[in-house]
Amino acid sequence: MKRQFIDKNKNICVAINFDQNTSTLFNQAVNLANATGMGIHFVHCLTPLINGPWGYYLPNEVVMPELTTQAEEGAVQKATEKLQALVEKIPTEFDVTYKAVVADPISGVLDQANEKNASLILTATSSYPDRNILNGASTAIGLVIHSPVPVMVIKEGHVDSFTKKRLSVLLADDLQNNTENAIHGCGELISQLKNIDMMHLHVHGGLYDNIADSVSSFMAESWKALNPNNKSAKQVLVEEYEMRKAALENRGVELKARIAATHGEYNSKVSSGDISEEIQLNAQKLDADLIVFGRHEFIHKSPFMFGRVPFGAMLMQDRPILVFPK
Length: 326
What we know:
The chain has 326 residues and is α/β, with parallel strands linked by helices. It has twelve helices and ten strands. The chain has a ten-stranded mixed beta sheet, sandwiched between helices. Strand 4, helix 4 and strand 5 form a beta-alpha-beta unit. Helix 3 packs across helix 4 and helix 5 runs parallel beside helix 10. It starts with 10 loop residues before the first strand and ends with a strand. About 7% of the residues have low confidence.
């Protein structure tokens, strides 16, 4: 049974850091809640002042737990007041809660999302062209990696699009099982918002195209063994394309029907080439308001390999991305 992520009895957990993204996250959360009927829970995480063994501190640095606890309590109080001031801007008809916690951002947000029965986490990432590429994105990456619920990542300076008359959504489908929840989630968005146009995109790498003309020459004997019907490499590629196209269309039948019921446009497309580049090009052509991915399960074994495609989109695209767990 597929998990429902748009549920009026659940919440959107919003990770607030009181930085340049606060206004963007605030507006996105309010507009999402208004569109879906979900509640909002704002959480701000304060890094613990004592977060390492005694040997971690400098020899002349004295750490006094009692004073540290007082400092943390004071910081929590100040953060709570800032959250309260933020929440007071929201109309009273919204179901809104908030909390400041002392915890590392990833575990703190995930714990709060679980405690508040959230079915969606909303966070933001920033671009730092003069720094290491992971700076400003590590919390978003960690949430995407470990979250049991979908995570929407907003880029710095993003103008909220959920107030538009129609939304353009690009669903990147690798035709694997890990994308099935993303397809189901897109169906929920379509039924709830009723204003979505969608491109359902599958990109297979350009390796086959690169070797198509030469494979039969440098692998002549092996090619014959693997290809008893004596098809050319080009014929094999055409058949592969048609097979992938049919699979994509089959996976999009329900999405197409839901969009048709809301008088929207649905297009499926199979292309080849560099996957990240193709997604970026198609997102630009579509002027996509949201890019949707499925998360690979192997990320828990290789933390920074939750999928190089959504990873690249999170850091490079100037558009929100929504990543669904398997």
